[in-house]
Design brief:
The complex is a heterodimer of chains A (110) and B (115). By secondary structure, chain A is mostly beta strands. Chain A has no helices and eleven strands. Chain B is built from no helices and eleven strands. Classes of the chains: A mainly beta (110), B mainly beta (115). Chains A and B meet through strand 4, strand 5 and strand 10 of A and strand 5 of B.
Chain lengths: 110, 115
């Protein structure tokens, strides 16, 4: 099973700043099948990025994904107040058809 | 409207089973994989398993092997998740989700396990 480790656990920044969230896999992610989700309190997660760098429909262009192999990054270029929530990475589509999530990064207002 | 509508909250006793439903609408049900994901209060997301809505084939997380069963009814565009031998640690929000990557989520069904 691929284990995903997100860092940092909590990131304290101010609105307007740039956020960089990391997701590291215990082994190479098949075809860079890595997604990022945003979860607001009391809501279901929302897909932001798939295939490591493709933005989902309707997602603002301040969200971008990058990386390959075992190291992936979600970047939020200019933080808006509504961005201060929790983010998860996920790998999908491996040969065993198993899916795993990272433990999450909480983005909080400094 | 493309959406997944889940059944209502459940309260169960330890040792019992629970069956949660998820009705899809607004798209071709049999063209997508469907998954169940759960989240205990304040905890991370946990993938439970998936079903090929067209073929009916399934795959389960090893963490739930033997306790979870995912089925579907194509005539009703609905999938089901049954979890048996419930314990207090199974108290969670249970989400049904669509797709290869999870592009559509239900609003969740809260399952509480308490004596």
């Amino acid at each position: 099973e691929i284990v995903l480790t997100q860092s940092p656990g909590t990131l304290s920044l101010s609105p307007g700043e740039r956020a960089t969230l990391s997701c590291r896999a215990s082994q190479s992610v098949t075809s860079n099948y890595l997604a990022w989700y945003q979860q607001k309190p009391g809501q279901a997660p929302r897909l932001l990025i798939y295939d490591a760098s493709s933005r989902a429909p309707g997602i603002p262009d301040r969200f971008s994904g990058s990386g390959s192999g075992t190291d992936f990054t979600l970047t939020i270029s200019r933080l808006e107040p509504e961005d201060f929530v929790v983010y998860y990475c996920q790998q999908y589509g491996n040969a065993l058809a198993m899916y795993t999530f990272g433990q999450g990064t909480k983005l909080e207002i400094k | 409207q493309v959406q997944l509508v889940q059944s209502g909250a459940e309260v169960k006793k330890p040792g019992a089973s629970v069956k949660v439903s998820c009705k899809a609408s607004g798209y071709t049900f049999t063209s997508y994989a469907m998954h169940w994901v759960r989240q205990a209060p304040g905890q991370r997301l946990e993938w439970m398993g998936w079903i090929n809505a067209g073929k009916g084939s399934t795959k389960y997380s090893q963490n739930f092997q033997g306790r979870v069963t995912i089925t579907r009814d194509t005539s009703a565009s609905t999938i089901y998740m049954e979890l048996s031998s419930l314990r207090s640690e199974d108290t969670s929000m249970y989400y049904c989700v669509r797709g290869w990557f999870f592009d559509l989520w239900g609003r969740g069904t809260l399952v509480t396990v308490s004596s």
